[in-house]
Amino acid sequence: MNISYERVSTIRQDERRQELCLDNYKIDKKYIDKATGKNSDRPQLNKLMVESIKGDNIYVESISRLGRNVDDLRKITEYFKEKGITVHFIKEGFNTDGNMYKFLLTILGAVAEMEREIIVERVREGIEKAKKFGTKSGIAIGRPERTIPKDFEKYYKRWKSKEIKATEFAKLIGVSRATLYRYIAVYESNFK
């Protein structure tokens, strides 16, 4: 029997992206978990492990859908291998026939695990920046408030009275014209 296992990380994610990878295979039964990478959160994987039998083929979009770390991946694939079941990783292009899969699983699993850790770290940093700088509609999250250069006001008055042009104004404070106009908008909304 050809079986697919799909996992999406959040309730809002759509599993159809994974199904596109499986279009070339005749799938008889599907198991879909909408949960994080933790084993305890994957009732469909647990059900698949119990219900699958010798000779079955399990198709997974990628190794990151089966497990989030190398140890988890190896434990799950070894379980299926001992039951006489072949696991196929579509994206990576290999399966658990033979012994080469152990090497590929270890290397690719480590890369997937590292990517996951980097994503978590970046999200955490973004949340900290948002907390530190606050978020306001129309302003990019995590960006500090724009500060006006110290000589801005002096040249602003000259520009306003048409003594100098915008191009000269921008050169005098060392910014592009686009940045100058952003400074002008901030200055006029806060200091006038």
From TrEMBL:
Full protein name: Resolvase domain-containing protein
Pfam families hit by this protein: Resolvase (PF00239)
Gene3D superfamilies cross-referenced by the UniProt entry: Resolvase, N-terminal catalytic domain
Signal peptide limits: none
Domain Resolvase/invertase-type recombinase catalytic per the UniProt entry, residue ranges: 1-134
InterPro entries: Resolv_N, Resolvase-like_N_sf, SSR_resolvase
Record-level Gene Ontology MF annotations: DNA binding; DNA strand exchange activity
Domain of life assignment: Bacteria
PROSITE patterns according to UniProt: RECOMBINASES_3
CDD domains hit by this protein: SR_ResInv
Database matches in SMART domains: Resolvase (SM00857)
Family, similarity comment: Belongs to the site-specific recombinase resolvase family.
